[in-house]
């Protein structure tokens, strides 16, 4: 009896606030790719959470219950389905609807997502490992926390040194896990993507083994059905062009932490600006 071929798809892994949503939307400009956003996070909620709430809008512009993809997939998932099994059902539904010539882009990005992909032989992911300059990352992470006036131990989240260490160990964990489990992957930086989107995407498509395509910055041309992800996917105006968030260049609160953690800055230079 012939063994079924594993489901081929593309996954983005990164820390939060690393640009994965806008990156996946730009990636899906390729006619063979469709971004579904953070699939694992969608499946963590019961289907009724998305289907019964008219405020749950897909990036395609329709309510979740009326989306041409999620409106068919979610009602077919029985409540209480184990998340690994539900993930495979999403894969099967995608292949039935779009055929074997199109591939899903999943931006679930959490470490649990990597573990799920490594543990299931039915899956054949190509992982895009997206990293953001640590200085830009920690400023983006601490900015809302500094204005939230957290109390107790939660105050640690608005400390630059804490977010810097979180960035370092979070990325090292992903890097080592993918190598140990032989997950096919390609590492890139958010900065590399923003400042040379066309060149970066062309190189990625080549690494993925996709047919040649000349991408541009028109993210609105991409194909996506994103229920869970950065809310910029709901705003047409913000999706017109790829813009680098340079606000961190006006901040200097991180300088002391950067000087006290030189190994983090070396890692940053090695993987972001190599």
Description of the molecule:
This is Sulfotransferase family protein. This protein has 274 residues and is an alpha/beta fold. It has a single domain, classed as Rossmann fold (3-Layer(aba) Sandwich). It is built from twelve helices and five strands. It has helices at residues 20-27, 39-43, 47-51, 70-73, 83-98, 111-119, 134-148, 160-180, 190-195, 197-208, 255-260, 262-272; strands at 7-13, 33-35, 103-109, 123-131, 185-189. Strands 2-3-1-4-5 form a five-stranded parallel beta sheet, sandwiched between helices. The radius of gyration is 19 Å and the shape is globular. The termini are far apart. Residues 234-239 have low confidence and may be disordered.
Number of strands: 5
Structural class determined from secondary elements: alpha/beta
What oligomeric state best describes the polypeptide chains here?
A: single chain
Our measurement of the CA-to-CA distance between the termini, rounded to an integer number of angstroms, reads 48 Å
Helix content: 40-55%
Name of the CATH first level: Alpha Beta
CATH architecture annotation name: 3-Layer(aba) Sandwich
Order of helices and strands: EHEHHHHEHEHHEHHHH
Which fold name fills CATH's third level, the topology? Answer: Rossmann fold
Radius of gyration: 19 Å
Please tell me the total number of domains. 1
Spatial ordering of strands, largest sheet: 2-3-1-4-5
The proportion of strand residues reads: 5-15%
Number of helices: 12
InterPro entries: P-loop_NTPase (IPR027417)
Protein name: Sulfotransferase family protein
Organism: Shewanella yunxiaonensis
């Amino acid at each position: 009896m012939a063994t079924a071929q594993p489901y081929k798809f593309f996954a983005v892994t990164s820390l939060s606030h690393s640009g994965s949503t806008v990156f996946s939307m730009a990636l899906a400009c390729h006619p063979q790719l469709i971004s579904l956003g953070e699939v694992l996070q969608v499946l963590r909620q019961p289907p009724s959470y998305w289907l019964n709430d008219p405020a749950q809008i897909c990036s395609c512009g329709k309510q979740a219950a009326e989306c041409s993809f999620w409106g068919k997939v979610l009602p077919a998932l029985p409540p209480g389905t184990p998340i690994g099994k539900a993930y495979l059902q999403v894969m099967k539904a995608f292949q039935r609807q779009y055929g074997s010539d199109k591939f899903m882009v999943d931006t679930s990005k959490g470490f649990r997502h990597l573990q799920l992909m490594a543990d299931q032989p039915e899956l054949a992911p190509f992982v895009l490992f997206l990293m953001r300059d640590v200085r830009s990352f920690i400023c983006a992470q601490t900015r809302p926390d500094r204005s939230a006036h957290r109390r107790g131990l939660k105050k640690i989240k608005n400390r630059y040194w804490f977010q810097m260490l979180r960035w370092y160990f979070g990325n090292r964990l992903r890097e080592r896990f993918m190598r140990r489990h032989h997950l096919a992957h390609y590492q890139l930086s958010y900065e590399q993507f923003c400042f040379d989107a066309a060149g970066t995407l062309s190189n990625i498509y080549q690494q993925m083994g996709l047919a040649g395509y000349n991408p541009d910055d028109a993210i609105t041309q991409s194909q996506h059905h994103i229920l869970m992800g950065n809310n910029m996917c709901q705003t047409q105006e913000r999706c017109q062009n790829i813009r680098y968030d340079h606000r961190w260049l006006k901040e200097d609160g991180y300088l002391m932490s950067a000087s006290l953690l030189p190994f983090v800055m070396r890692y940053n230079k090695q993987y972001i600006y190599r």
